[in-house]
Amino acid sequence: MGVDYLTKRLRSYIFEYAGCESATIGLSGGVDSAVVAFLAVKALGVNRTHLYFLPSKTTSKEDLEDSQILAETLGVPKGNFRIIPIDGIVDDIVQAAHIAQSDRLGIGNVKARTRMILLHSFARFNKGLVVGTGDKSEITIGYFTKFGDGGVDVLPIGDLYKTQVRQMALEMRLPARVYEKSPSPGLWPGQTAEKELGMDYFLLDQVLFRRFDLWRDEECIASELRIPIKKVRKIVQQVKSTQHKRYPAEIFKLGFRCHGSDWRYPREWA
Q: Domains in the chain and their CATH numbers?
């Protein structure tokens, strides 16, 4: 049921609301982009789904292979799946911005934003939208680059936790190696999401669901999951500190009504 609903919503959003003709998706080799690519193909067809793998020198060979396998599995035409290295662009920006080679987060942000610039350019050429691949776990804790992988037009799996996305990938019969691997943005060598988070996604999702869906207090969550309360508090603090990533830039109100909390018109405003 979830796949059918998301497929219907994505088709309607792109064709009817946005008046566009296709979907442009950046593949990472991971489960999130694989599931989104499947949804796009089901919603729009293989000829209206454009997949791009934009590797850097820190991208793993495994991610490249998995992206190629995914495109073949979905039946996407070769002309609709492109591999475009980004190192030359990234190096130019790093040099121009005087970013130190030791600043791996700074360089990682440049990589993510370079990819998004390219994806939006491709989407314009394809008369389509950039369909994002962020899931609810990573959006909630701010585990994405602002104006990078967060800078998309629509997020079809943004209300699914990572564990739910993995289950959906299993139901879609996507290649097992795609959803069984340890998630990694691949922004620097050896980077894994779970290592940075200090816990696996299964535990993270249980904490997030209890705190922000069920609104249970931190002490209750720690007791239920039998984990130190400091772990729960660390996650909650990460959600709070990354709030700015999930909202448009703050506007300092001067007039009667300004964009933000005063501006409550629906997205699909007729």
A: 2-194 (3.40.50.620), 198-270 (no CATH)
Alpha helices in 75-217 (DSSP H): 87-96, 104-125, 136-140, 162-171, 176-180, 193-197, 201-208
Sign of CA dihedral 181, 187, 189, 194: negative
The residue type of 5 is: Y
> 21-33 pLDDT, tens per residue?
999 999 999 999 9
Burial of 123 (0-12, 13-18, 19+ CB in 10 A): buried
Element (H, E) at 81: strand 81-83
Q: Which amino acid is at 266?
A: P
128-130 and 81-83 beta bridge pairing:
unpaired
Give every CB contact of residue 181 below 8 A, 6+ residues apart in sequence.
Answer: 29, 30, 31, 62, 66
- Alpha-carbon radius of gyration of the chain: 19
Cα–Cα distances in angstroms (integers) from residue 33 to residues 5, 37, 116, 127, 132, in the given order? 18, 6, 14, 20, 8
CB 26 within 8 Å of CB 129: no
The model carries a pTM of 0.93
When pLDDT is averaged across residues 118-132 and rounded to a whole number, the result is: 98
Q: What are phi and psi of 190, to 5 degrees?
A: 80, 5
The tokens describing 170, both together, are 């299993």
Q: Are 165 and 262 in contact (CB under 8 A)?
A: no
pLDDT of residue 164 exceeding 80, the answer is yes
Angstrom distance (rounded) from CA 97 to CA 94: 5
d(CA 141, CA 127): 32
Within 10 angstroms of residue 119's Cβ, the number of other Cβ atoms is: 23
Cβ atoms of residues 145 and 108 within 8 Å: yes
d(CA 5, CA 43): 10
Instruction: State how far Cα 3 lies from the chain centre.
Output: 18
